[in-house]
Amino acid sequence: MDSRQALIEAAFADRARLPEAADAVRATIADLDAGRLRVATPGDDGWTVHAWVKQAILLYFSLAELTVMEAGPFRYHDKIPPKTDLAGVRVVPPGTARYGSFLEPGVILMPGYVNIGAYVGAGSMVDTWATVGSCAQIGRGVHLAGGVGIGGVLEPPGATPVIIEDGAFIGSRCVVVEGVRVGREAVLGANTVLTSSTPIIDVTGPEERVLKGAVPPGAVVVPGSRPRRFPAGEYHLPCALIIGQRSASTDRKTSLEDALRQFSVAV
Predict the structure, then answer these.
(1) Is the pLDDT at 221 greater than 80, yes or no?
(2) CA-to-CA separations, 71 to 55, 67, 95, 99, 131, in angstroms, rounded
């Protein structure tokens, strides 16, 4: 157990104890900003969420004070400053990462946004107007295309954040929220919306297979709809369709291009 964990958990349960945990909270956010600590970590048995780290983020909002911040001709009024340690990261104005997030060297941040607690792996691109919500975990070699919305999950602290694993491609205007996990090398076609309750239907076999909350590795997914009867009549509700599988090519770019071409996926 991290030596700060007990202090932070006690302060989260009783805010009167926040002053004695203040240094631990600030040190935890500094470690998030430097990539020494993560909200969630991958392992052989899946992902582990470190609830006390998310508690530290929530406590940090109570400790931080509203201040005026200036960046060139722009002026902001907020509690959390922009991230300044961006060694090896390409940031295209007005792309912004918030203090307490971490971007590995090799990340490209177009005019998008990365929130506190988020982690973005090497070689990934956060494209124009894409947003990475608080605590989201983005793997290496991921492409978040224009206008993608990756939701933030701060509360409850034990809840799993949105996780996009290595090599995934998230097409334009996709929305992934509520702790959904997108597996390695998966492809989401443009405008796919995934919540924890969205049916993800594998239609590649003789019978449909319905999943929720997770896209399997390598799956090619597009938006769809399915009928549902209500007292007022029959209406079509959104779902996501797994229409194929990305090839196991060792060349990610070739594999992606083949998948997009083969399944006519709009990105």
Answers:
(1) yes
(2) 29, 13, 12, 14, 20
